[in-house]
Amino acid sequence: MNERTGLVVVAVVLIGLLLPAGAAIAVDLGTFEASEGVVLETNSGLTVELSDSQELPAVPFADDETIAVDGVEISADGSAEVAVSDATFDGDSASVSEIDATSSDISIARDDVVEVTVGGGVGEVTLHDAELDNDETDIEISGNSEMQLELHGTGFDGGIQLVDADGDQVGGTTTAIDGETIDLAAGSYELRLQDGPSQLEIRDETNPETLLDDDEIDLRVRFFGDDEQVFERTATDGTVDLDGLPADEELVVTVRDENADYVWRRILIDSILDQSAIYLLPATEPSSEIRFHLQDDTGRFPSDEARLFVEKPLTIDGETTYQIISGDEFSAGGEFPTTLVEEERYRLRVTNDAGEERVLGAYTVTGPDNPSVTIGTVNIAGDVETEPVAQASLRAAPPDADYEYEARVIYIDEEGATDALTIGIESEAGETVRPEIEESGPYGRYIETYPIYDHNFDPEEDSLIVHVEADRGYQGTETWDIPVGDLPDVLADADIDPWILELMGWVSLIALAGLIVIVSPSLAAIVTVGYAALLTAIGILPIPGVAIGVAGSTAILYRLGGGGLR
């Protein structure tokens, strides 16, 4: 740049800075090329540094707070800093880096991407075209301390949710998302927008495809939130407006039919993102009052932390899923009363504040009852401190059950990093015993007892395959296919805790090796590996197959080499 051109550039920039806000000029002052490192500053104190050379308008300011360049507007009402580059102006996304919004929030807008305001510890942000439910990232944001994010101008309303890469909600209410301040912990996020519920449907438990939309049905619905707020709504056409209700927390919902045509129901919903319908029982349906009593043998589910969910598999639009029929916290005395349909089978699920979950199997209503909800101890083989562990076993059903055997699945992730579990059980012939259903987490401990209703099933002759798939977010997916059944009588009938069985297995293995090594060391190596493989195959020892294979090969080579022959 020669001296004269430099003077023109300085003069043009000065004119732009000295123009009063909102002033208009009658001539086009053109553009100029600004090199990398040039810093633009608004009267409010916002500075924008160019990371690449850019062609700038002679007056790159929309007002005292806003820098406007090539369709991009960045503004702040106080001291703030950002850096822009070619990636800010070109391509399908807009990226802004080196953000300092600790003193003042910064708004970033480009016509073809989502508009945002960021604050706090945000360091970088990349904005994409906002679309609903396309499973593509709409916003990428990162920072080294707590961050704030607001969306503007999306035009979406009716319960829009903002979720992270794992599908966990980070923002959104049951109304429009625009203007809501979303707090994010330090870290990096890939966020996307998805449609969420704006209404709660009220359906008939005995005919779940049916909405209770009769004008003569007079339903009063109350919502109880975490902060003891109470919201009251009236059902219209089988739906309840969720405007203003929190979408990302537990809600206790009670429904009363003023005409007494339906049974009063109380239900605890984890989140209306997970279940946006409640199911009422017609008063004419044969039913019984059931008073569940908590019996916690572990000390991990005290009555003031334990929650009971009574669930039922319901088919809607051809898809069968477990839906919460009734549920809430246990009373101080460890009791939960509810009314259930006679001769119907329900699933019982208990959770605690630590995120542990026990799926306790089936309960069939045969009349008024006071059953115990028993939380038993869990023993599992494997190193649960370093990695997630899954285990499955068969055991005899309780004496009053209408089935003979049940499968017990135990999953432990001490990091609590499991976002979802998919569990399925099939027979050795490939027939479905328990349909594969994804259970939403997060999970640290999950225990499920599933009844085997096939009365021809014989664990001494038949076997099952338990499939467990754990989605652990960015840590990946872990899978297990665990065979159960077809075990020797001594194992099927002994009812020995797994850890005791494992200890007995190790002791017997060491004893066998110690006896045979006296006769022949090489023979002892082969026999010991074979015995270890047998104990592993029948589920007593958790020795990896690779380890057995390597040990077996080594033992054979040792034997062939004449090692220790006598």
Put the structure in a nutshell.
This protein has 566 residues and is mainly beta. Among the domains are: 3-195, no CATH class; 385-492, Immunoglobulin-like (Sandwich), CATH 2.60.40; 498-560, no CATH class.
SS class: mainly beta
Q: What is the tally of beta strands?
A: 37
Unreliable residue stretches = 1-27, 487-494
Can you tell me the overall shape? flat
Report the average pLDDT across residues. Answer: 80
Q: Beta-strand percentage?
A: over 45%
Rg, alpha carbons: 32 Å
The number of helical runs is 6
Helical residues, percent: 10-25%
The largest sheet is:
13 strands, mixed
The span between the termini is 94 Å
Q: Main attributes?
A:
transmembrane helix, 13-stranded mixed sheet, Immunoglobulin-like, 566 residues, plasmid, 14% helix, transmembrane, membrane, disordered N terminus, mainly beta, 7-stranded mixed sheet
Structure commentary:
There is one protein chain. The chain is mostly beta strands. Among the domains are: 3-195, no CATH class; 385-492, Immunoglobulin-like; 498-560, no CATH class. The protein has six helices and 37 strands. The longest helix is centred in the C-terminal third of the chain and has 22 residues, at 498-519. The N and C termini lie far apart (94 Å). Residues 1-27 and 487-494 have low confidence and may be disordered.
